[in-house]
Amino acid sequence: MNHPASAIAPCWSCKGPVASRALFCSVCGAVQGPGVVDHYTRLGLPRSFDIDQDALERQYLGLQRRVHPDRFASKSPREKALSQAQATALNDAHDTLKDPLRRAAYLLGLLGSPVDLTACGTINDRALLMEQMEMREALAEAETRERVAQLAMEAESAMIACQCGISAAFNANDLDQAGHLAIRLKYLSRLAEEARAKKTRITRTP
């Protein structure tokens, strides 16, 4: 359970009140450890699958500059450790929300409908299974750089369409559909990556 951003904890240095999302104590100015808040709250963004990427980068870079460990090189060991912990938490939040697949899975978890993208078991959806079998068979049989490039583009186009579907599902509060499409996006992403790798191998072959 994520604590609300307004939750208050005592500053480790002066014991003054500090909000969960705060980087520094407003009383003594000491850097704080990362509070227990979700990634959206940490970066000051609305909880949504649809993210303004420019706003994400601005928020991340602005906060990261303030707690970068280099700024605490002359501080106490505790302050160095806390600044590093803040920087790590911001990196994790940024990397998760920047990636559509990780963002979808993370948001589903926040909304109480988790999906396991690390599972490597059998695909339960027959339509998805058939789609993946056909696409993988086509990639395995592709022998020219042009054909592999075409398959990579098809997979990437399908990924974009899938992301649009995930957005629509979240907006309609259809979490089951969002989860289903997140799993499809995982397999499409993997296929696109394998196609790009095969194209590179073919390009390098004498």
UniProtKB/TrEMBL annotation:
GO MF term list: ATPase activator activity; protein-folding chaperone binding
Domain J: 38-110
UniProt KW Plastid keyword: no
Keywords carried by this UniProt record: Chaperone
Record CDD domains: DnaJ (cd06257)
PANTHER family for this protein: IRON-SULFUR CLUSTER CO-CHAPERONE PROTEIN HSCB (PTHR14021)
Function text: Co-chaperone involved in the maturation of iron-sulfur cluster-containing proteins. Seems to help targeting proteins to be folded toward HscA.
Similarity-based family: Belongs to the HscB family.
Protein name: Co-chaperone protein HscB homolog
Organism (species): Magnetospirillum fulvum MGU-K5
